[in-house]
Fold:
Amino acid sequence: MTTRPLGAQISHMLKDRGVDTIFGIPGVHNQEMYRGIEEAGITHVLARHEQGAGFMADGYARATGKVGVAYVISGPGLCNIMTPMGQAYSDSVPMLVLSSVLDETEARRGQLHQMKDQEGAAAAVCDWSVTARTAQAAYALIDRALGELKVGRERPKHIAIPIQQLEADAPNAPPVHDSDLFRLPAPDEYAVTKIVRALRAARRPVFVLGGGARTGWTLYDKLVQHADAATFTTYAGRGIISDDNPLHFGSLLARPESAGIFAKADLVVAVGTELSEVDLWRSHLGHDCPMIRLDLDPSNLTSLHHEDDEAILGDAYKTLEAVHDHLKEAPTESDWTQKEVTDFRNRMRAQI
Structure:
């Protein structure tokens, strides 16, 4: 057991839980958080502005699949990072923002970086924003945030820690527990069978892969090849399918002509995507066939277009890994041709 200021203990805790990089800017209000970074063996990336630190954490999370962690000061430091937090919320990017906060804001006025409601301000652009008023609360909330990001929709969380708590000595954080609470459930056999049968029956299946399919993206190239399926990705899903995949239409959903491609489909499998306004820039995907929606967030499964559409609540990777295991034993063939995909991509690139 080692006693350190809580600010330093937090860096050691994050290191024990797999965090190796932190983005941010040190200041008088969060300097205790910075004392532990080097000692814990974490790389720090310094930004000139907290907005830059937030977008770096966002990009790091998208590129690595890890949680993007940022340290910021109270008041303007948090306000500056709220823009990338809001973007990460919209795009389902795993981010954890840790900020300092004044110990009290009512009895004393005119304090440096004083805000009326720092917790509430951040809550407007992230999944949740809370204040940890003890060391034990800080440890529990960090574990809650990291655990939820493992099994739930990946959206930013914010934890504020009062300055006096950051400066006060605290014991080590609890050891890492590989809790069953934060294990994704096994894929539903009904869902797997439903998808496999639909793909085997289809002659023109199309996958739409969104940001919710980012985890374990190496699976999807193999899956769509065994299914002989055409693919689109949303902007948040770019990179999930290799550009050299012969039936990959790319991230061109927003081109109006993509509706014509979906009009030819006889099955759409939409994975980890809201099919939102900024994905399509039209009110409808363009299909007139059944769609299977697979998503971890039940709120994304309400916009079904046909009475025979299927909504499946579950983890994209685990479910489609099981689908892949079925298909690799007996791959299917479709009516899609590489030429129609290449012609479409060339036309769209010429227009752009």
